[in-house]
Write a structure and sequence with these properties.
By secondary structure, this protein is of the alpha+beta class. The chain contains eleven helices and 31 strands. A hairpin with a 2-residue loop joins strand 30 and strand 31. It is elongated, with a radius of gyration of 30 Å.
C-alpha cells in the first residue's frame, strides 16, 4: 500500500473518532493527493450513508446483506462523482474518473446495524490536469441543498504524497481552497510542533495574514479623520444575506458584480450602525472588490474580472468620516449565520499594535475611548542670516516634512493653511497639486498614502546666503493600510529649492523637481516585523 493510502487509514481512524458522537445525514472523508499533471482522491463513505441514501432494509437480526450493500455502493458511484468537486484556479471543474471501488469491509455474511458507522467503502478517483495549477478548490454537496442536517466531509490535502496542511472539514457552501507551490514543493512532513509553527507563520506571511480562503475577516480602523470598517467575506457566505442574481450559477460576471453595489452598501449601512463622538456616522461604501484566489489580486487591487462563486471573496470598505478627531467610537454588528456565528475583528487605532475584538450574538457591541495624537505643522523661524550646507540641509528637511505633513489634514482648506506655514506665493497651489498626485498609490486604487519619513540624502552649498538656492536629494517613505496590510512605498527625488525669509519665517519660494525614481514597494502585515 502506498504511503499516502496509509496516511488515509490513520486519517480515517481520527475522523471516525471525532464524529461518531453526532451523525448528520452524510459522513465522509477524503484524502486528495495533488501532482502537477493529475489529482488522485480517495473518498471514503460510511456504510450507514449507503443505508440512508438508498433506503436499505435490515433483516430480523438487524443485519444488512452484503448483496444490498455492494449494490448500493455501485449505485453510489455517480453520486460521489457528481457531488465531490475539484475546481482549478479559474473555477473550472475537473473531470473525475472512477479508478476503483473498494468494498472489502463488507463481510459476506452481511453487516450488523451496530457496525455501520465503523465500516466504509472507498472510491478511488483520478482527475487529469492539463496544465500546472497554483490553486485548487475542494467542495462537496453530499447532503443536498434541502438537507435537514448538513453533510460533513473531513478533508486531507497532500502535494506529491506529502502532507501539505492540517485536515479541514467541508460542509455545503463552505469549499476549501489550497495554494500549491511547484517551485518549492513540500519534501518532508513537519517533525515537531516548533516546525509546524514555523511553517504556519511562513505561510501566513506569504498569504499576507489571510490564514484561510474561506474565512470571514474584519478590520476596524480608528484614525484622526474617520472610522473605517473593512470586511473580507467569502462570496458564498455573503450570499446567505444578499442574493446575487446571475446567468451562470457557478460564476459572477463583472456587470453582475457592479449591479450588487447599492444592495451591499444598504445592507451593511443598516446592519452595522456606527457612532463617533456620540453622533451617528453615515456609512459610505468607498471600495468594493470581488477577489479571486491569487493573493496578489487582494494586495494590489486587481482589475475587475469574472469570478467563481466557490472561490471569490468580496472586499467591502465602509468609511465613517468625522469632522472632529474621534474620542469615542461605538459600533454594533448584527449579522450572523451558521457559517458566521461570530465576527473576529482586528482593531487598529492610529499606529498602535493590533488588538482583537469578538462580536457575538449576545455581545454585538464594540466601544473605544481614547486620544489620537494630532499632526503638528509648525513654522520654521529664520534665526540665522547665513546658512551653511549643514544648516541648509536641516532647514530643507524641516520644510519638506511640513509640506508632506500638511496632507495629514482632510479638508482642502486645512491642507492649504498648513502648507502656507512653509510655502510662499505662487508655489502654494502648484505644490498642493504636485504633492497630492505623488502621494496617490495607484496600486491601492488611488488611496492617499501617509508619509512616515522624509530623509535628506545630499545637499549642495547655497548659491547665495541671502536667497539660498540649493540642489538636494531626498527620500519619502509613505504607507497605505488596508485589510491589516501595510503597503509601503519609498520614492527618491532630486530637485532644486529656494528658500526665503518671510517675516522672520523660512519658506519655500520655489521647488523644481529634476528627477524621481521608485526605490521600494512592499507589503507587510501590521504586527509583524517588516524585514
Amino acid at each position: 500500500m502506498c504511503a499516502w493510502r496509509l496516511l488515509f487509514v490513520a486519517f480515517a481512524v481520527w475522523s471516525i473518532a471525532n464524529i461518531a458522537a453526532a451523525h448528520p445525514i452524510s459522513l465522509s472523508s477524503a484524502v486528495v493527493d495533488v501532482c502537477e499533471d493529475h489529482v488522485k482522491a480517495d473518498v471514503q463513505i460510511m456504510l450507514e450513508d449507503l443505508v440512508l441514501y438508498h433506503a436499505l432494509k435490515a433483516d430480523g437480526n438487524y443485519v444488512y446483506s452484503a448483496t444490498d450493500l455492494r449494490a448500493a455502493a455501485e449505485k453510489h458511484k455517480q453520486f460521489v462523482i457528481d457531488y465531490f468537486s475539484i475546481l482549478d484556479a479559474d473555477g473550472q471543474r475537473l473531470v473525475a474518473k472512477l479508478d476503483e471501488l473498494e468494498t472489502d469491509k463488507i463481510d459476506e455474511q452481511g453487516v450488523p446495524q451496530t457496525e455501520l458507522m465503523k465500516r466504509s467503502v472507498n472510491y478511488l478517483l483520478s482527475f487529469p490536469v492539463e496544465k500546472r495549477q497554483n490553486f485548487f478548490t475542494f467542495a462537496q454537496s453530499f447532503g443536498g441543498p434541502n438537507a435537514v442536517l448538513p453533510a460533513l466531509m473531513d478533508l486531507m490535502v497532500l502535494q506529491n504524497g506529502k502532507l501539505l496542511e492540517r485536515p479541514t472539514q467541508l460542509t455545503l457552501g463552505r469549499p476549501h481552497s489550497t495554494k500549491f507551490d511547484w517551485d518549492n514543493p513540500p519534501t518532508n512532513a513537519p517533525t515537531s510542533i516548533r516546525e509546524m509553527r514555523r511553517l504556519r507563520d511562513e505561510q501566513l506571511r506569504k498569504q499576507l495574514g489571510i490564514a484561510t480562503y474561506g474565512g470571514l475577516y474584519s478590520f476596524l480602523y480608528v484614525t484622526r479623520f474617520e472610522v473605517r470598517h473593512e470586511i473580507l467575506i467569502p462570496l458564498l457566505t455573503l450570499e446567505q444575506w444578499i442574493p446575487f442574481p446571475r446567468k451562470d450559477p457557478d460564476f459572477l460576471e463583472v456587470d453582475e458584480q457592479q449591479s450588487a453595489r447599492d444592495e451591499i452598501e444598504r445592507f451593511f449601512r443598516d446592519r452595522n450602525p456606527v457612532s463617533v463622538n456620540g453622533a451617528t456616522a453615515i456609512a459610505k461604501l468607498t471600495r468594493l472588490n470581488f477577489f479571486a484566489l491569487d493573493i496578489n489580486d487582494f494586495a494590489l487591487n486587481a482589475e475587475p474580472r469574472r469570478v467563481s462563486i466557490h472561490q471569490a471573496r468580496v472586499g467591502v470598505i465602509l468609511s465613517y468620516p468625522s469632522r472632529e478627531t474621534p474620542a469615542n467610537v461605538a459600533m454594533k454588528w448584527t449579522t450572523f449565520s451558521d457559517h458566521a456565528p461570530y465576527l473576529r475583528s482586528i482593531v487598529l487605532v492610529g499606529n498602535e499594535a493590533p488588538a482583537e475584538h469578538y462580536f457575538r450574538v449576545n455581545r454585538p457591541d464594540f466601544k473605544w475611548d481614547g486620544k489620537l495624537i494630532a499632526t503638528k505643522v509648525a513654522p520654521v523661524p529664520a534665526t540665522a542670516r547665513v546658512l551653511t550646507s549643514e544648516a541648509n540641509g536641516e532647514l530643507l528637511g524641516r520644510l519638506l516634512r511640513n509640506v508632506y505633513g500638511a496632507f495629514e489634514f482632510r479638508d482642502d482648506s486645512d491642507v492649504y493653511d498648513a502648507l502656507a506655514t512653509s510655502v510662499e506665493g505662487d508655489l502654494l497651489r502648484e505644490l498642493y497639486l504636485r504633492v497630492k498626485r505623488s502621494l496617490l498609490m495607484a496600486e491601492q486604487g488611488g488611496a492617499l498614502s501617509h508619509v512616515d519619513m522624509v530623509e535628506i540624502l545630499t545637499v549642495t552649498p547655497p548659491t547665495d546666503p541671502a536667497l539660498p538656492t540649493t540642489e538636494a536629494t531626498w527620500r519619502v517613505s509613505g504607507t497605505v493600510e488596508h485589510w491589516g496590510h501595510v503597503h509601503t512605498r519609498v520614492n527618491e527625488y532630486r530637485g532644486r529649492a529656494t528658500v526665503v525669509n518671510h517675516e522672520g519665517v523660512w519658506k519655500l519660494q520655489s521647488l523644481q523637481l529634476l528627477d524621481e525614481k521608485r526605490i521600494k514597494f512592499e507589503t507587510s502585515i501590521r504586527g509583524y516585523d517588516r524585514d
